[in-house]
Amino acid sequence: MFSLIPTHLPLALRSPRVLIAIGATTAAAIGVASYALTRRRPSAEEIERERRELLARVGRITDGTIMDTMVAEVRQPALDLADDPEPVRPGPLTPDMIVYVYRIAGVTYECAQDVTMLADLVHGIRTDLPIQVRYAPQNPANSIVVAETWSGLRLGTYPNQTEVERHDAI
Q: Where does the source fall among the domains of life (predicted)?
């Protein structure tokens, strides 16, 4: 077997154990590189959902205030009042972004949360009431006001809601 190993190699590389170790290391490096290049990377929505789930599960709660809600402009078709004696009034708008402020250990944090994926949970939000904010204890700037499993928002009642919808909103 030693006759198959080339003699121009240095003495340390002529050992079969060294050749096997080099081959195994090369195969492992190729495997790691192929995994790194072909693995499925999470999308931005998946990363944000995981962040919300983590904060809803282990985050601390503090009081906060909504500063602003940003709503995408929705154009509604013009109503012909002559044909319909009682026009349909639009309900409360659903915000796309909630800007809120909270205070921890004398430091005031102003944050915003994109709630476009949580539209059914923020429909009818009341901005005149205090809210609860969940934040990460090790990074207080990492916070949320609503997630799939938790909400610190106060939802309002509107004239067109039924009594059952009012009870569900509370």
A: Bacteria
Q: How many CB atoms within 10 Å of residue 146?
A: 21
Domain count, the chain: 2
How much is the pLDDT for 148?
Answer: 92
Query: In terms of domains, do 82 and 128 share one?
Result: yes
DSSP-assigned states of every residue in 33-61: HHHHHHSPPPPHHHHHHHHHHHHHHH-EE
> Cα 19 to the chain's mean position, in Å?
49
What's the pLDDT tens digit per position in 96-114? 899 999 999 999 999 999 9
Does 94 share its domain with 160? yes
CB 65 within 8 A of CB 100: yes
Could you tell me if 52 and 32 lie in one domain?
Answer: no
DSSP-assigned states of every residue in 86-122: SPPPP-PPPPSEEEEEEEETTEEEEEEEE-GGGGGGS
Examine the domain organization and report whether 113 and 62 are in the same domain. Answer: yes
Taking the model in full, what pTM does it have?
A: 0.63
Say yes or no: 90 and 132 in one domain: yes
Average pLDDT for 121-136: 87
Q: Which residues contact 98 (CB under 8 A, 6 or more apart)?
A: 66, 68, 69, 70, 112, 113, 115, 122, 125, 145, 146, 153
